[in-house]
Amino acid sequence: MHILGNCSCIALLPRIHVLYDMAAPGLPALRGINPSLDKSTSMYKIISRYLFREVAYTLAAVGSVLILIFVSHRLVRILAEAAVGRISSDLVLQLLGLKLVSSLGFLLPLIFFLAVILALGRLHRDSEITAIRASGLGMMRLVRVVGVLGVLFAVPVAVLTLYFSPQARTTVQEIYLQAKDSPSLGGIQAGRFTEFADGEQVLYVERVLPAEARMEGVFAQAQGSNGSARMDVLYAQRAAQQVMENGDRFMVMEEGYRYGGEPGGADYVITHFRTHGLRIEEEAVGTLHRKLSAWGSDELVGSENSAHIAELQWRISLPLSVIILSVLAVPLSQSAPRQGKYARFFTAVVVYFCYTNLLGVARSLVERGELGTIIGLGWVHLGFALVSFGLLFYHRSGQWHWAAIRRRWRRARDSA
Description:
The chain has helices spanning about 5-10, 15-25, 30, 35-85, 90-125, 130-135, 140-180, 295-300, 305-330, 345-365, 380-395, 400-415; strands spanning about 195, 200-210, 215-225, 230-245, 250-260, 270-280. By secondary structure, the protein is of the alpha+beta class. The protein has a 6-stranded antiparallel sheet, with no helix packed on it.
């Protein structure tokens, strides 16, 4: 469907009505047509559907690219953690999904803003925006269509930031805490000393092979039981963990030596072994100290703590920014036909990062108590909303209407 052809056909409806009214006065069906009403409503519906489709296609493309970049970056980091044994390899995909959910609330406003900029930029490049305006739909109608899209898109962003993202962050923290406190292979990192049983057992591993569920170059130190001064030092070429039926965990070491005795004494016993089992003392999982970003939104509501208020305002700011950016994208996407749809891309990125950085600055000021919680992050949204409507006022006819502004100023001054 070509938008220029549709708009031209709609623009001809009043003329067609007059011709048929003159040539065929006996056709009551044609006399019942209200051309101006049909022209306005039909044109608005056609262009709305057309813009919805254009933005949706661009949104899918931009979203796929940015989410793929984010997932690739996170996957590399998670695989690096699994390679050194900080987490189990079985948790890689789960952590990747949780981190994606926790960050989508921040990514989606950028994705939507760039999608609208690129979609409207293509319409400007192909002169379709000119055809739309020539058919009677001004910039404010265009803002209305894009604004409706912004409101619809802000709903899932709000659900993510207020509900799902905090839950995902809490789950991520729990996984890392369990991996740190658990004596399983996933909690052992190569090249680091790992303590168990309040420091009574120390383990050092030169190399961890998660795929084979074993370790190489294992050094272990264990204190004697019941307050004994005896100490055992073990070294083995290989080791793996084994869980018994009753839940006890053993480090099964192969091809190594055991040195046993009291520190400072000369009565050490050196034993060579083919296989030796060292019982790993279980510990209670540490307390989870959740970060503020992992708190539920219901826990933040009603709090008088400035940090809690700043966090809640930040979560509300993300869906609100979608609506403001959707309005800002309309005048910001305007370009000459020969400039192409990427002409305003760099400008849009700069504007977005200025917006988010100012929100971050306001958030920090509220957390430190240097900015009132009533003002909070609202001044940033108000400023960008004023910029958006200022640009709309400028681009409505391509000038600032300085002459009209001066005339109104003179009238107000003279009347005063």
